[in-house]
Each structure stands twice: as C-alpha cells, then as structure tokens.
Design a protein that fits this description.
Number of helices: 8
Order of helices and strands: EEHHHHHHEHH
Strand order of the largest sheet: 1-2-3
Number of strands: 3
Distance between the termini: 34 Å
Radius of gyration: 21 Å
Strand content: under 5%
Number of domains: 2
Structural class: mainly alpha
Largest sheet: 3 strands, mixed
Length: about 230
C-alpha cells in the first residue's frame, strides 16, 4: 500500500491527492514503524505481560500495512489464547519478519523455533502458577509458600517474555531503519496499551495481596492473575 509522504495516510494506487491532507501524490512512500525498546520493557512489566497480546496485534498490523500481504492482526493476537495453534502463529510471525529482513539483505537474530520453545515454557509456568494458587481448580485457600512460588514463576515468565520481545523488536527496528525511501513513523501509545496496563496493575495488586495477606489467600480470591 502506498502512503502520503506528507502525513503518512494510506492513499489509493494511482490517486493524485491525499484524501487526508490534500498533498499532491507525485511521490508516495512506504512507512516504517519502530517501537522503543524501553516502551516494550515498561509496558510488559506494568501490564503483567499482557502487553504481549497488543504487541502481537500491532506488529502484525505493521506487517500488513507495510507489505500489503493478507493478515488479520486481531485474530492473530487472539490465537495466543489457543493452545498449540497459538505457537504456530508465533512461529509464523517471527518467520515472516525474518523473510522481510532477508529480502533486504539483513539477517534476523531470532530463530522462530527458539521463540516457540520459550512461549511453550511460559505456558507451562503459567499452568503451574495457577495450580499453586488454586486458579485452575478453585481451591478455597493456598499457602504463603504457594503464593511466593507462583510470584517467582510469574517473574520468570515476564523475564522470558522480555528475552524474546526485546531482541525481536530490535530486529524490527533495524529493518525499518535500513529501508530506503521509507517514512519512519514511530508507533504512538494507543488506547489498547493503556487498557492492558490498567488490567495488569490489578493483576500486580492481586499478586502482592496474595503475598502479604493471609486472609486474602484464605478467601481464595487470588490466583487469577497470570501474564499469559
């Protein structure tokens, strides 16, 4: 899809003027969408790992808009909730960007199978953490040791997420910046990211109260918080 070099809005092929800003379309440009690594680090932690879903949606949308290839960003993000199949979509995501980089003479630093293995591990850690805190079987209470163990598993999962997301985004930023005649449009913070961050803060509160309050653990109200 071509884009207006003045405002970055998508324009029709063969059009003479941008429908958004009215700029003449003697030239058009493709867009590049770098995302700050600090932003990913901050939002992943604040959202208790839920930012992964939005990042998956956002980068699939960037891929679709940049290449014009068929993609369904919302559906691809939701597939992360589907056991096994979501791993195939994760593999496809990394592979697709690696192929783009290869066509531009760049080498991706991330092996798709390694990413799949990491996400499989985080899924297992999430199941174990929920069992410890009664989130899967609805037990009435759980112990302080179980709460600490679950919190450690959550922390390890967040670290693994970042171990994957940061290198992948670093590759993507390197790809966008390497392209000639591409207008760089840094992705702005969007409503979805704010919503996921708010939900994540509640998940952090749930985890912290599970560690600090015996009555909270006895009530069996914690355990629903999970970063995956």
């Amino acid at each position: 899809m071509p884009y207006c070099i003045n405002c970055g809005a998508g324009v029709e092929v063969g059009g003479n003027f941008c429908g958004s800003c009215g700029n003449g379309l003697g030239q058009t440009a493709r867009l590049g969408y770098p995302i700050s690594l600090n932003r990913i680090l901050f939002l992943t932690i604040v959202s208790f790992g839920l930012y992964l879903f939005y990042w998956f949606y956002l980068t699939w949308r960037h891929y679709r808009d940049h290449t014009g290839n068929e993609a369904y960003p919302i559906w691809h993000a939701l597939t992360l909730l589907i056991p096994i199949y979501g791993l195939f979509r994760i593999h496809a995501h990394v592979r697709s960007y690696n192929e783009l980089m290869s066509k531009s003479g760049l080498l991706g630093s991330i092996d798709p199978m390694w990413v799949v293995a990491v996400f499989l591990i985080t899924n297992i850690l999430g199941i174990v953490a929920n069992i410890l805190t009664g989130g899967l079987f609805g037990t009435d209470d759980y112990t302080f040791v179980a709460a600490v163990s679950a919190a450690i598993l959550f922390a390890v999962s967040l670290a693994l997420y970042l171990r994957v997301l940061l290198p992948i985004q670093s590759d993507l930023n390197r790809y966008w910046e390497s392209l000639a005649n591409v207008q760089i449009v840094p992705s702005k913070v969007r409503v979805g990211e704010v919503v996921f961050s708010i939900i994540g803060l509640f998940a952090w509160m749930d985890t912290i109260w599970g560690l600090l309050s015996e009555s909270y653990r006895a009530a069996g109200t914690a355990g629903a918080a999970t970063p995956f």
